Fold this sequence. Notes:
Layout: H1 11-14, E1 32-36, H2 43-54, E2 58-60, H3 61-69, H4 73-98, E3 103-105, H5 114-123, E4 124-130, H6 133-140, H7 154-169, E5 174-177, H8 183-196, E6 201-206, E7 211-217, H9 224-228, E8 236-242, H10 245-259, E9 263-269, H11 278-290, E10 298-303, H12 305-317, E11 324-328, H13 331-337, E12 342-347, E13 350-357, E14 362-366, H14 375-392, H15 394-409, H16 412-432, H17 450-460, H18 467-484, H19 490-502, H20 518-526, E15 538-541, E16 547-550, H21 555-564
Parallel strand pairs: 1-3, 1-4, 2-3, 4-5, 7-14, 8-9, 8-10, 10-11, 11-14
Antiparallel strand pairs: 6-7, 12-13, 15-16
Helix pairs in contact: 2-8, 3-4, 4-5, 6-7, 11-12, 13-14, 13-16, 14-15, 14-16, 14-18, 15-16, 17-18, 17-20, 18-19, 18-21
Amino acid sequence: MTRNIMPRPSGLATGLQETAPPPLPAAVAGRSIALVGLMGAGKTSIGRRLAARLGLPFRDADAEIELAAGCTIPEIFQRYGESEFRAGERRVIARLLAGDPTVLATGGGAFMDPQTRASLRREAVSVWLRCPLPTLLRRVAGRSHRPLLNDGDAEETLRRLMQQRDTTYAEADVIVQCGDESPEVTTGLVAEALLSWRPPRRLTVALASAQYDVIVGPGLLARAGALLAPVLPQKRVFVVTDATVAPLHLPALLVGLEQTGFAATPITVPSGEASKCLDVFADITDRILDAAAERRTAVLALGGGVVGDLAGFAAAATLRGLPFVQVPTTLLAQVDSSVGGKTGINTRHGKNLLGAFHQPRMVIADTATLATLPPRELAAGYAEIAKAGLIGDAAFFAWCEANGAAVVGGDAALQAEAVLRACAFKAQVVGDDEREEKPSGGRALLNLGHTFGHALEAELGFGTILHGEAVAVGIGLAFRLSSRLGLCAPEDAERVVAHLEAVGLPAELRHLNRRLSAERLLLHMRRDKKTRDGRLTFVLVQGIGQAVTRDDVPAPEVTALLRAEGCGA
């Protein structure tokens, strides 16, 4: 909630006790606040007022530099040049950030230094005071202590600096649009912005081959450029999306990228599972190569699991590997397919049989995109959330039973919590077995319900049944099979099936209203990439939260289960 901050009354002027400074939110408390922007933006005057209002000390980086050097900034420029000045500025700011939290006014060029920018990201909340050119001109007119204004026309110099620097200033945590209002009003705007600012939640995926962050929160498409600038080697990207997602979310992402100077080329593919094929894959790679992509040029996947798998495989194969970013817009993709680096396409032999492990540089899960999903898509994505608890976290499954209906019903806060918790679980599993090489357990456990689910998708036709729906039925069948084999109590299977049904998912074959053949489903399972030495491999359970891999399940037992569940021969 945004709070209106009024100037504190003076005890001398009013006879009242001076009010205490407003409490800062947890996201800001304990950190310095760094004001950035061009000369004339008011960083010093606003900084002093903001520090008084928040009850923090104030430091001016330029004044501290002059104190340390024993001469003025123009003299430093004249004697040593700008390069030496920037090096000294970097050291001074690092020293100031290492102390107690403060309000820090930085020089106009400080934020342009990558090391200083990195220090500010770690230690402070950065605020860009964004002013229009006429305002800046009026404020710097006649000032001789600005070295960059001493040569040439001030208007032309400021315009050039804006062109050079604004896309970097846009990486600041908070942006406050300033104008000709009084310093007191501007200070109030900054204080309000800080009080309402909430950083996105971050989860780090640490693997043997890579480390990257999963960023979760609303409104992240508009901040995509600021999030990606520190992690991508080049400000040129291809955005792969589909015909459904493009009109909904592509414009916001492009604006977010452009704000920080990214040049983005969109590539739109048809919607649906049918796009995960060799023809569409070839078209994407051709378009990337036709545009003379370099090995530092990144591929962004904007969409659901289909787009993520397809674009990820294109990134993995083109020029033997381009940087890759997942920007999932469905619940299923946010909690599952965007994390872990599995990419691939389908063939006539089955699902995801061509692909590669290719870890993203970052995953940006904008939870606001979930509001555009139809109820069926939300429910399908929820299957992967419940799966996380069923594999190895019984307490999380209990959380799902209490909150699952609200997650599927659109509760934004619970959706964000579910995404973060499911991703944290998957990151832990993937970190222990990145390429699914353990002979048992490990990453293979994430395939709970998938052997049955992939068979259903192959039999019914990719896209006819949603992946999450197929997984939900597969989870129900995996628990039923585990019960038949004496691994878990029948009550566990009933509890799981009841919960999946309660949130609107199919959990039994009868819910599909289709005539199915046990023999054909078994044939699809034998073609699954998880088959070992011709033996069927399943993820089964010894109870809720106790998944195990098994490659010794007799085919007759599987056939018997499928027939008991209503399949024909």
